[in-house]
Amino acid sequence: MNLDADGFIGTLLAIEGISDARAVMNGPTGCRGSPAFFSDRHFPRDNSLNRRSFEEPFFFGQSRIPCTYLDSDDYIHGSTQKLQEILPLIAEKGDAFLAVVNSPGASLIGDDLDRFLTEARLDHICMAFEGAAYSRPLPEGFDQAITAILRWLRLNRLPRVKNRVNLLGFSMIQRYWQGNIAEIRHLCELMGLAVVSVPGAGSSVSEIRESTTAYCNIVIYPEYSRKTAEFYESEFGIPAVYSHGGAPIGFGATETWIRTVAAATGRDPTPALEEIKKHRTHAFHQIARYHHEAGYPKGTTFAVRGDSSFVYPITVWLYEYLGMVPVSVELMAGEDPETVGHLEEYLAANALSGTLGADPAIVRPDIYFGDGLSGKDLELSGRCRKSVDIFNRTTGDIHFTEKAFLGGAGALWILEHVFTAVKDFPW
């Protein structure tokens, strides 16, 4: 059974990831509930706690992703009447950008959304997605949506500034996305770089409009941003920077990422590398306490499932740094071919090719790295000892502090979970 969200959800989350934007769904209420709840949970706006602000029709008490609630008659006669009712109401909310997204069923009606927006004089703040990446991988839908939004905004060609960069590939679907952005932003600042925007992950429309001043785009998760990076390069000559080590997860991949970014921007990597060295030293002193005790994770088996640019560096790091043994390595749909190639080569070189695609329910790892629901299912059924939640399909834990699993601070977070889990294992 595949429980992963598809490209339609990726489209909605790309729009909702812009801080002053709002997605409007043209479709039945059943398509709206989950993404509306998800957006409000993982990227709440200032007014989301004031439920009385959303008692009007189309909101149904939820603050995000209002919906036209199409019924059987609308599929015959069209959705124009409901769009005429909903859009002026939504426009009064004061968002800088609106996007009407057809649900899979609504896309078959054939309404000309662009013509309607023009006639309603809303085409200056509202764009239409008459179709989305239905049944395609979520990262693909996210990437296509961000690219389409950048085209619609008609970004100006501004002078590029040597020390400015954009971060590409972040999405609220990723666990601790805001903490991870803060960690990467901090590493950039140590190299004298200023982050202009993170399209689809917290940046405003005005920040996105300013994104063309960037000297380069730093791609963290290529699955979510290859088309976006290609758009920036073809339209504005802004090159993309990819790290061959994958996302900056673990000390080694983070140091590789720092050197790659520094080389591409002409900056000094030393301050950022010194920061990682401090984290390494701190980890060493903590690990030394357990090296000769039962709580050391060497030989502990693990399974991991996630985006390819996450799976590759964490697999390498846990195997080489802690001596943990992968028994299941699964990639979510929409993987990056180049990263998959690196992963396959690494697994083959270490006689671990059989782990790629192995079912964690069968191999029964000690620790499972993946989404919270799958991990909890494995735990409760006795098919893994402990799960570490790294994806935003969670069991509903409430967090008040900002966390990260990228960069040096993120490496310590992962180590903390691993050592805490192993310490409690009944060896």
SSE topology sketch:
Elements: H1 7-16, E1 21-26, H2 33-42, H3 72-77, H4 80-91, E2 97-102, H5 113-119, E3 126-129, H6 138-153, E4 161-168, H7 177-190, E5 194-197, H8 205-209, E6 214-219, H9 226-236, E7 240-241, H10 250-265, H11 270-288, E8 301-306, H12 308-321, E9 325-331, H13 337-349, H14 360-363, E10 367-371, H15 372-380, E11 386-391, H16 407-423
Parallel strand pairs: 1-2, 2-3, 4-5, 4-6, 6-7, 8-9, 8-10, 10-11
Helix pairs in contact: 1-6, 6-9, 7-16, 10-11, 10-12, 10-16, 11-16, 12-13
Brief write-up:
The protein has 427 residues and is of the alpha/beta class. The chain has helices at residues 7-16, 33-42, 72-77, 80-91, 113-119, 138-153, 177-190, 205-209, 226-236, 250-265, 270-288, 308-321, 337-349, 360-363, 372-380, 407-423, and strands spanning 21-26, 97-102, 126-129, 161-168, 194-197, 214-219, 240-241, 301-306, 325-331, 367-371, 386-391.
Shape: globular
Known CATH architecture of the largest domain: 3-Layer(aba) Sandwich
For the record, the CATH class of the largest domain is Alpha Beta
Q: What percent strand?
A: 5-15%
Fill in the keyword field for this structure.
427 residues; alpha/beta; Rossmann fold; 4-stranded parallel beta sheet; 16 helices; 43% helix; globular; Nase/OxRdtase_comp1; NifE-like; Nitrogenase vanadium-cofactor synthesis protein vnfn; oxidoreductase activity
